Amino acid sequence: xxxxxxxxxxxxxxxxxxxxxxxxxxxxxxxxxxxxxxxxxxxxxxxxxxxxxxxxxxxxxxxxxxxxxxxxxxxxxxxxxxxxxxxxxxxxxxxxxxxxxxxxxxxxxxxxxxxxxxx
Length: 119
Fold this sequence. Notes:
mainly alpha; 3 helices
């Protein structure tokens, strides 16, 4: 403790010098030590900073979510258009296939009919 330190320094430095040295050390320690009020101010400042950062993060998350929803809607619309295009192509080629098939079968039947009658 300070009293023990004072008793050890007093014979070597003298009464007045030992007292002044300990007062200087004690004052220096008090100036550097955080008080309860300092800690409360720091805690309040940290809480405010955490709240601010949390609000910024929520805003950023909300913005990114909106962007993602927009991008998903855009891609969905593009897919719908592409599906409609593919359906139209399939119908067109299906029609061409069936018309061709009917023409070939009709020609074949006509050729067989002509061959049968020509006999």
